[in-house]
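Blinded run. Sample ID left blank on purpose so nobody reads anything into the name before looking at the predicted structure. Input follows.
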Amino acid sequence: MILQRIRAAAKPATQIPKPQSTDIYTVVGWGQSRGEKALVYRLPTKSGTKKASEKRITESAFVAGFEVLQKSGELTREWFKRNFPALERDGGCNFTTLGGILELIGEAQYAGPGVYKKTKTAG
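Blinded prediction complete.
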């Protein structure tokens, strides 16, 4: 069910909420990564480059992140590093994108460096 909500909210060109950043990260669509479906998103273009880069977050990361948020009331970068080390190695923006997408659907809110908390109105 969480994946349907994410797919409905994270349409191409949707801006992803990012903490403490004025850079704009946007949803590209859905593709494949590490043998499963994944959200593809675009990072801001760095000065001196012509093409923006893209990253991916797997469906399993969204499901697991949502479950830990529901059970513990928070989602932390430490949890993300332990459970999704390959995604963490791809860049720290993967954690804030996971949290930002959960924020987009009203399940989480940024609570400080490395922490998203479950919203009070969320299930």
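Unblinding after everyone has recorded impressions. The beta strands are 26-33, 36-42, 54-58, 74-76, 108-112, 115-118.
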